[in-house]
Predict the 3D structure of the following.
Amino acid sequence: MKKRATSAPEKTDLPRKSTLAARGVAAGVITTGIKKAGLEAGLNEQIIALEAELALYREALRNSREDMQAFAYSVSHDLKAPLRAIEGFSRILMEDFSGELSEEARRFLKHIVSNAETLSGQIEDLLKYYRAGKNPPARIPVDLDSVCREIVSTLPPDEATRVEIIGTLPTVNGDPVQLREVLAQLISNGLKFSSKAENKKVEISGAVEKSATRVSVRDHGIGFDPKHGTKLFQVFQKLHTDFPGNGIGLAIVKRLVQAHGGCVQADAAPDKGATFAVILPNQQLAAAQ
């Protein structure tokens, strides 16, 4: 009887497949590394370009600040001195030589003095606006309730009785001098534009919200058309020319609040009063503690 021949075990290609797979993985790793190196090189080039662009912006900002300083110096010294001379000599003519001047000449001198006073006030306000953004704000806890009550205590009695602080105003992190200026400007603004209203009250309230602290100053005065609201925060922009002032107060408010990382919102309607809300981010207070 013949023996069945046993077949040799079949050869497998698993080692070959494993080798090819390993080579594929290695090639993938190499390709990924090349791509990553290319991306990093491109990213480094972008970073270098951005740093160069940022350096240009910093240089432009530095030059702009130097120009502003030169302008402020020029306004303070080169413009105010001759303006004072115009106003002073005009007053001397009006007071000491009034009898020798005609009625028309006296009328002209009154116009000269009046316009000189207006221009002098505008120069002072412009310098005030410049100084408001010159120095970065301090970052310390500021009790807005105490600040607000101190401002009200300095008002004339007839105005102080018109201001109502609702509840207790919160504490924020910021510059006490600058935030006092913000509140003083908003209170003055509310008192001025509600002075002819039936309800002359100016109400101040505050609330700590999820991500920000809000302080609102509301009046019941003349209000304004919301479509012109953005003009309020521009230098020398006035929506109501029959009220005193040069239109600089709200521009200063906006500049100081923005320096604190916040914003100012205005809500109003004609003859229905206005509410100005200062919104300051809470995370700055947390970061300082």
User: Anything to note?
Assistant: Residues 35 and 107 are 82 Å apart (CA to CA). The longest strand covers residues 212-219. Helices lie at 14-96, 103-132, 144-153, 157-160, 176-193, 249-259, 283-288.
